Amino acid sequence: MRILFVHQNLPAQFRHLLGTLSEIPGIEVVGIREDLPHPVVGFPAQFPLIKYARPQGGNPSTHHYLRGFEGQVRRGQAIVRVCLDLRQKGFIPDWIIAHPGWGESLFLKDVFPESRLIGFLEFFYRGRGGDVGFDPEYPSQLDDLFRLRIKNSHLLHDLAACDEALAPTHWQASQAPEVFHPKIRVMHDGIRTDIVRPDQTATFQLTDGRILTHQDNVLTYVARNLEPYRGFHVFMRALPEILKANPTTQVVIVGGDEVSYGSPPKPPHKTYREKMLAEVGKHLDVSRLHFVGKLPYASYLTLLQISRLHVYLTYPFVLSWSLLEAMSAGCLLLASATPPVQEVINEGETGFLCNFFDHEQLANRATELLSGEDHSDVRSCARQFVIDNMDYQTCIRPRWLEWLGIKHIA
Fold it and tell me: Which residues contact 31 (CB under 8 A, 6 or more apart)?
């Protein structure tokens, strides 16, 4: 069997699956990804990995609705050149598994019409009912709705061309136009719960050299970047009261200062961290507030393992791996009552919920959970939920093998 993986930052969501395929005799895999400056981690060494140069983006003179799509077409063309070369060399995949988000899958079925294409439906943009227009602090305009409609162009092409699609959560699947729903399977990428697990002996070293352990009262917050989409502004507004009411609590914040989603802050602030510290910084005990940036995975994991309470906030948007890994690591969760969070956090069972916009409620609930009982039953239920529904080895791996028609027992 031959399988082609296409993802701008491969292995990304397919890391676990690629690891499984590397252990099965007779499976030929080729990966295609952009030639990015950072090293590739997690792509099996025995599989060929073809890198393409980042193509030119949209022309500045192009209508601003269309610039993104123009760049995606060029990226799709870059993939075509790689795939035509593969075809000429005799590699015709049985399966193509691709993320359409950057336009890479636009022409795959034209080059390989005999292959079955699985499109990874991470997110379909909507002008209402999703991330856009959700936060009144960052309102959308009518022009944004027009722009979003065109922004979906490459995703609509993929949904029309693919044989099947894959979405990590039911809510993310539901955002696609209803006509495509019969094509979509809901299956998460999978969590290695054998690796991401509670560890009472874990320790985490702060940048000043201090060591935190499971015995400390640690509040954690994690995001790829510190920005409104992940509720950073709400979390920061809750912190003065949380720190005041919990004098032993240490707050550790993980995340960079770039912008992954949405727009950058308006001048004079260059980052959302700078913006929020300007707003609430004078009310914070900075000796107990630790911004640690982006962490190596092992350090990130030990931080989750010592956390007394983990806060996860998000717009209605893509569900972060960090939420599920926090659950798997045995964290007590306080999360926003937003989709798709509510698919995994049931109030009082697998965690606790709060109104995304109510920083006072967030502060009060966090104080209750930091100063009250350990809620070991809730922690256990949260981990068990991930084991039962999203554990890669026991849940996701068998479903992938069945989907691809691979008969392998190990």
Answer: 4, 5, 6, 7, 10, 11, 18, 43, 47, 48, 49, 50
In whole angstroms, give the CA distance from residue 338 to residue 358: 13
CATH code at 2-190+391-404: 3.40.50.2000
How far apart are the C-alpha atoms of 211 and 202, rounded to whole Å?
Answer: 10
Note the CATH architecture for domain 203-389: 3-Layer(aba) Sandwich (3.40)
What is the residue type of 105? S
> Would you state the torsion angle of the CA atoms of residues 220, 221, 222, 228, taken in this order, to the nearest 10 degrees?
180
Q: Prior bond to 265 cis, omega within 30?
A: no
- Distance between CA atoms of residues 275 and 284, nearest Å: 14
Tell me if 2-190+391-404 shares its fold with 203-389.
Answer: yes
Return per-residue pLDDT of the chain as tens, 410 residues: 999 999 999 999 999 999 999 999 999 999 999 999 999 999 999 999 999 999 999 999 999 999 999 999 999 999 999 999 999 999 999 999 999 999 999 999 999 999 999 999 999 999 889 999 999 999 999 999 999 999 999 999 999 999 999 999 999 999 999 999 999 999 999 999 999 999 999 999 999 999 999 999 999 999 999 999 999 999 999 999 999 999 999 999 999 999 999 899 999 999 999 999 999 999 999 999 999 999 999 999 999 999 999 999 999 999 999 999 999 999 999 999 999 999 999 999 999 999 999 999 999 999 999 998 889 999 999 999 999 999 999 999 999 999 999 985 55
* Angle, alpha carbons 332-336-339 (nearest 5°): 115
Indicate the residue type of 139.
P
> How many CA within 13 A on the CB side of residue 153?
14
Cα–Cα distance, 46 to 13 (Å, whole number): 19
Write down the domain spans for the chain.
2-190+391-404, 203-389
- The neighbouring-strand residues paired with 51 are 33
Structural tokens at position 196: 């991401």
pTM of the model: 0.95
